[in-house]
Design a protein that fits this description.
- This protein has 187 residues and is mainly beta.
- The chain has one helix and eleven strands; from the N terminus they run αβββββββββββ.
- A hairpin with an 8-residue loop joins β4 and β5.
């Protein structure tokens, strides 16, 4: 017999709730980063680390590290590609946590064909242009230069990486962004 049955039931209820939350996180695909232990005290990877593109068994997702006037790390599942509005788009969105709002990375080009594997220049003069929006606000940064590397392509399911610099449209702030992705076809 436990000396305080009410306290024992409360502890069991808390343990059961924690197990349920852990099960939901695993079902949603949550997993610690490979190098999370080597990162900062809060378990995140160091800012200079950019994860490789998701592996073959992984579903759609993306990783991004933003440095400069904003510093944050994203790891999200919202990675889509497809033709809309007479242009071909790649869109990545996620929320870094820690009280930060959502972040949206958008890349687009003037035709509607899915890109083949290869390296594409980013920026107004490149094959793809785009922006990064950091909320709240939003603060909108236009991509100035960089590259998009598509390492594998099957229709709108693309795998690759990107690196670019961007400048605030209504100000002087700038950011550098590096990341990797695996897209799904946009609905």
């Amino acid at each position: 017999m436990h000396p305080n049955p009410t306290a024992a039931r409360r502890r069991f209820g808390r343990a059961l709730a924690a197990a349920g939350i852990c099960g939901l996180l695993v079902a949603c695909g949550a997993a610690p980063a490979d190098d999370a232990a080597a990162g900062s005290p809060d378990g995140t990877a160091p800012a200079a680390t950019v994860a490789a593109a998701p592996g073959p068994a992984a579903g759609p997702g993306f990783q991004a590290t933003v440095t400069g006037d904003h510093a944050l790390t994203l790891d999200g599942v919202n990675a889509m590609a497809g033709a809309r509005y007479g242009r071909y788009h790649l869109s990545f969105s996620g929320q870094p946590g820690g009280g930060s709002g959502p972040v949206v990375i958008s890349l687009a080009r003037g035709d509607t064909a899915s890109p083949a594997p290869g390296t594409y220049a980013l920026g107004d003069e490149g094959e793809f242009d785009g922006n990064i929006e950091i909320h709240p606000g939003p603060v909108d940064y236009a991509i100035e230069d960089g590259e998009l590397v598509v390492s594998a392509a099957s229709g709108d399911e693309l795998t690759g990486r990107y690196a670019f610099s961007a400048r605030e449209r209504a100000g002087t702030a700038s950011v550098t962004v590096e990341g990797s992705f695996r897209t799904r076809a946009a609905d």
